[in-house]
Each structure stands twice: as structure tokens, then as C-alpha cells.
Amino acid sequence: MKRNIDNDLRYVHEEYPSECTSVLIGKHMTSDGSMIAARSEDWNAMLAKNLKIYQDTDHGPDKFEARDSPFRCDLPAKALGYTALEPYHLPGHWGSAGFNSAGVGMSATESIFSNDNALKADPLEEEGIAENSVYNIVLPYVNTARGGVERLGELIEKYGVAEGFGIAFVDSKEIWYLETACGHRWLACRIPDDKYFVTGNQSRFREYDPKDKDNFMACNDLIEFAKNNLLYDHNVEDFDFHTAYARDIKLDTTYNYPRVWGLQAMFSPSIKNDVTKNTFPVFAHADKKLSLADVKQAFRFHYQGTEHDPYLHSNPKEKYRPVSIFRTTQTHILQVRQELPDAIGKINYVALGMAALAPFIPFYQGMTAYIDEFTKGTDCSSHDSAYWKFRKVQALGMVNFNRYAPIIQEVYNKWEEETAQRQKEMEGRYMTIHKTQPLYAKDLVQEFSENVMRSVLKVTDELIEDLFTRLTADIQAEYRFAGA
Fold first, then answer.
1. CB atoms inside a 10 Å sphere around CB 438
2. How high is the pLDDT of residue 484?
3. Disulfide-capable partner of 231 in 38, 82, 226, 316 (CB 3.0 to 4.6 Å)?
4. Which residues contact residue 280 at a Cβ distance below 8 angstroms, ignoring those fewer than 6 apart?
5. Is 293 helix (H, G, I), strand (E, B) or coil?
6. In which band, very low, low, confident or very high, does the pLDDT at 176 lie, cut at 50, 70 and 90?
């Protein structure tokens, strides 16, 4: 029986900003030669994320109609299948992250903001493309990362945008990232193979060379429009995308700068950045090649070991905004290992909820279905929802972070290590049979994936009971009232 929560939980659908942190890494900057496009989505902890697989079709919907904005657009009838991480109340919207059946990965969206002068010259469109729509109107219709940029760019120019955003695309060859400039303008850059890129809710691009078609794509009049509307002084300075189009205000110095500063300090200690100044390199070299574990650590970052750690100091008013926050709904790491078949070479590692207190679960491109628990979840906690199982652990952990977080992290770290070893074993078997026994190889990936999902839920159920036991003992000890 569903509880009547309208009066007791009025905050369930309270408006929270959808804000994120993104990390993109070129193939020569990773320890295993893979490419990585990753992002955390910070929104409202009460809104469950459900996992969805869409199938290839020649008879898809001919029109997209946003459920929570006035945006509408026509769609091609032929659509590729793709995976999505959807908010429970907006099916077919906010797909967030995944791969399509052509092997293109997409992460959407990173909220960013244009400056007032740029918006005065080219305003946002109230009925334009909003962040809720981007993923589902682009990923099913592209065959390459570059093609994703081209389609999205065309849509931006045709319909305009209702808000600013950054989007990542990855395929077996390259990674691209697109930033909106204002209502109808945009710039995309290819991530250098030997560098990484980090951003947090702020446009980061600066350089643009319209003659370099290998590394840049943009609307045709990006520089000319900036000149004509005096968005920068072209008589005394070179074109700088950030200067011309991006917002840079006092809020950014504590909300956005520290995340870029912190992650670049983690990956590149040799870079001496000033957290108060937006002089961070756009694309940076790591001091050592980055592993998958390094990326996971980045999304679990909350200024550990410093005075700015809000959890260590039980300080929800900390002025430096961490990467890992409680209202994160999901974090994904799209990893492309181009030397392997797509079925096992393209993986989406997903942490549901707050990454600092959650496991990263590998979802292979070759999967055909999720177990039921990963497709269920609403705005009320329920025992049959994977999202809410992880949320229970995180809520208990936040009751006393310093006491319970180490317990949670130890359990999940052990599970991740064991799962990584099982992945290697499964992938080895897959490689020996996928050419001669393709159907068996396909079943192997699905069976492995189902076992992984059941395993992480079993570990999580056990962890919930352990934490409740510890919390009960702690409360009893604090409120003893045992007499003389």
C-alpha cells in the first residue's frame, strides 16, 4: 500500500539545480590505452534513476515532445538502440549516459552558463532545446562521436537552446566535447589523445581555430558574431571563447573553480594552480597515466585531508563545493577499449547516488537486459529498487560520516576489486569463443552481468543490516538512561 507522503515529504519534488562534474581522458593519457568520458549528475536524491535499454527500430516516434519543457522537434523514423539512465518520472527524457548500438557513447548534460552580454546579443529560446531533451534526440541518430557533434550543432542552430550545457561524445577513435555559447551558437573541441579535461558547471574552452577541422567544430559565425557584438576587443586581444561567451562571476570562485583546482591537483600535482583564479589549463597532462581507479577516486573527491572537507568536519555550509555530494543521482564512467570487440570493450561504470558511498557497477555494451531491481524506483524508498537500496546505505552513512563511511567504503572497495578480477576472467573466456561461438559469447556477457547486479545488491543488503545494527548500538549507548 502506497503511503500518502504529500504532507510529510513536501520536499520530494522541491526544485534543485541539475549540476555536474565531468572528466574526459584521451587514450594516451590512460594507463591501459582506453578513452574515458565520465560525469556525475547532481540533482535531487529523492528522484530515482532507472536503467533502460532501447532497441533498434525502423519505426520510431516521428516527433519528440518534452514532458517538462515546451521543446518539440521532428525525429527520423530509423533509430539506433541505446542505453539510458532515466529519472523515474520522465521516461524517454534525461537519458544521461550510455552507448548506442553503433558504439557511440554520450554524456548529457553538464550545466553551464553564458555571460549577460552574449545572451543579450543572442538570447536563450524558451521553447528551445533544454537539458532534458539533448540525449534522447541525438544519441539514437548518430554513428560517430563527430556525427554526434554535427547533429547537435545543427539542432542548436535550428531550435536554439533554453539553457546552457556541455555534452561529451566518444567512439572507438576519439572524444569530443561541445559547449553552448548562447542562444544559437556553440563550440566543440576534440580531446587531445595525450591530455585530460575536467570541468564543473562552467564553460572551459578558450582556443578556437576555424581552420583546424580535425580538432574544432563550431557554428559558422562564432568569431564574427563575437566581434560584431563587442563580446571581446578584437583590436587588442585574440579570440577567447570563455572571455567572449562564458559567465564568470563570484559564485564560480567557490562553486566551480575549487572542483577544477582539486581534480587537477589530484591528477597533476606539478601544476601549481591558484584556486581563486580561473587560469587552469583547459587540457592538462597528468603526472602519471590515469587508471580507472583514479577516475573513480576523482568522483569520490570531497577535499579529503583538508579544512574544506565538509563531511570530515560535519559542515554542510562549507563554501567549497565538493565533487561528491549527497544529491548526486548517478555517476557514470564511459570507458572505450578500442582494441576489444564492442560487446566487452565498451563499458559504462555506474554508481547510483553519492559516489563516495557507492560502488561502481560495470555495465557492458553486450548486455541485453537489466535485472528488475535496476529498472524500478520512484520518489519513495522501496525494498525492490536498486537505487533505493544504495540510497539507504548512503543515508545511514551520512548520519555519522566519520564513523560509518570507512565501513561502507571498505565493503564496496572489496566488491569492486573482486568484480574487476571476475571481469578479467569473463573477458578472457569471451575472447576465446566470440568468433566461433557468437551466441554463447553473447549469453556469457549477459549471465556475467546479471551475476554482478545480484552480487552488488546482496552485498548492499548485508551492509544495510550491518549499519542498522551499529546505529542501534550507538543510539542506545548515547541515550542510555540506565539509572544509578
1. 12
2. 61
3. 226
4. 204, 257, 260, 261, 264, 273
5. helix
6. very high
- Rounded to whole angstroms, the Cα distance separating 273 from 265 reads 8
Mean pLDDT of 220-229: 98
CA distance 6 to 12: 9
Range 309-314 average pLDDT? 96
The band of 78, judged by pLDDT with boundaries at 50, 70 and 90, is: very high
Instruction: Please tell me whether residue 352 adopts helix, strand or coil conformation.
Output: strand
N-to-C CA span, the chain = 45
**Cβ atoms 183, 39 nearer than 8 A:** no
**479 class by beta-carbon count within 10 Å (0-12 exposed, 13-18 middle, 19+ buried):** exposed
Model-level pTM? Answer: 0.96
Catalytic residue from among 20, 182, 189, 219? 20
Measured on CA atoms in the order 348, 257, 357, 108, is the torsion positive or negative? negative
Largest separation between any pair of C-alpha atoms in the chain: 84
Is it the case that residue 11 has pLDDT exceeding 50? Answer: no
Beta bridge partners of 330: 41, 352
Q: Which residues, including other chains, have CB under 8 Å from residue 300's CB and lie 6 or more apart?
A: 323, 324, 355, 356
pLDDT in tens, 238-278: 999 999 999 999 999 999 999 999 999 999 999 999 999 99
User: Are the beta carbons of 35 and 104 closer than 8 angstroms?
Assistant: no
20 given a catalytic annotation: yes
Strand partners, 30: 290
Output the DSSP codes for 182-228: SSS-EEEEEPPTT-EEEESSS-------TT-TTTEEE-TTHHHHHHH
Amino acid at 256: N
Per-residue b or e along 49-81, where b marks 16 or more CB atoms closer than 10 Å to that residue's CB: bbbbbbeeeeebeeebebeebebeeeeeeebbe
How far apart are alpha carbons 129 and 135 in whole angstroms?
A: 11
pLDDT of residue 322: 97
Q: Give every CB contact of residue 451 below 8 A, 6+ residues apart in sequence.
A: none
Distances (CA, A) of 327 to 19, 126, 383, 423: 10, 27, 20, 30
Task: Provide the grid cell at 96.
Answer: 544521461
Long-range contacts formed by 301-310: CB under 8 A, 24+ apart: 301/259, 301/262, 301/263, 301/266, 302/356, 303/258, 303/262, 308/258
Q: Whole-angstrom Cα distance, residue 7 to residue 5?
A: 6
Q: Residue 2 burial by CB count (10 A; 0-12/13-18/19+): exposed, middle or buried?
A: exposed
Q: At what angle do helices 257-267 and 292-299 cross, to 10 degrees?
A: 150
| Owner of C-alpha cell 566519520 | 402
CA-CA distance, 456 to 464, in Å (whole number)? 12
- Helices (H), ranges, 308-437: 342-345, 386-399, 401-433
CA gap 415, 461 in Å, rounded: 13
